[in-house]
Amino acid sequence: MLVGLAMLAAVGYWTFTKLRKPEKPAEKWVYTPPEEKIPEPVRTDSLLKASRIIFIDKDNDIRDTLLKKERVMRISGDFFFVIKKEDTPLHLRTRLIDVHVDEPSEFRVSAYDADRGESIEVMSGYLRVAKTYTSPWPEPDTLRDSSLYMINDSIDLSEKEKLDNIALKKWWERVKRKFEL
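Above: the chain's sequence. Below: its structure in token form.
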């Protein structure tokens, strides 16, 4: 009887190892947001010496302020920034995020003062971001090409992911042609 059980176990093991499908190697996860309709820009303006700011929504607010003797642009709304080399470094601030633009960059900021969450979608460039509020996890982060940064202060959560936003890429190509950027 033991010999029969041993043979059955051996056959079962052989069948399991030979017939099972090999595991796929782990793939690098890239966030692809659901297809969204990004509105046509309300307007576009020059920013500083050579850069551009695109106002995606009419309920946008941008103010030049001084913070600890440093020029800071305080923003609330939905914007797309095209920052040129001549205008770096640049310091932007939303209700939840401090943004330092250190090299030429193209990125979208969706950050309304009334909302609990904000996001930054970086098409290209290099940004340093940090929370503006006191947090047990205050570590700053860096964003590079094709990065998404999301933050929510009600649960003190910030998250950085690789971004593959086809809708934003298509929108940006259309806007560049329309406004000759």
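The chain has a mean pLDDT of 85.
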